[in-house]
Specification:
alpha/beta; 20 strands; six-stranded parallel beta sheet; 2 helices; globular
Amino acid sequence: MVIKKLYNYILFRSNNILFSCIYNLRSFLSALLYVLSELESLIVRPNGNPILRKVFLRINNIKFGKCCFFGHGFHLYKSNAQLVIGERVCIGENGGIYLHDDIEIGDDFLAAPGLTINNGSHNIETLEPTSAKIKIGDRVWCGVNVTIVAGANIGDDCVIGANSLVLSDIPARSLAVGIPARIIRQNIRTSSNVWSCYTH
């Protein structure tokens, strides 16, 4: 009986150690790939092929389209939530995506440096962590230092002005600016034909 308990204990501990080693190895590889992909982002331009950045995204279970680019200084915090990135997405330098809930970014998304997408928050009374999904439509352009927070839903063909804070829904084909972002013009785009850094 004692030998069986000892055997089970050793088996349990060795499985935990093995799991811990595999988890730590994956974390190490992820960190190494992040550093290498940062170096790569200094050399490869958006219309290039950032292979290491794509491998980094894959091992973090990020779904993305054929063409995507993240400038140097990119930060990714990922919980168990799902990040889905469309085709021909380009995010400038020092961008960050912080997943506490699902985030979906549509095709032809273009962001200047300093973009922050964060769908984590806290209840103001209890400080208990909360989160809400974020959805960004197709052909959206965000200026410098735009912040998009929990619960925001940006429709197709929108432009978000520099230094704006998106807290809520922005309907399709709108120009929104400010803190918080307010719509200052609607029906801004009549065609789905847009410029892409991947075609030049």
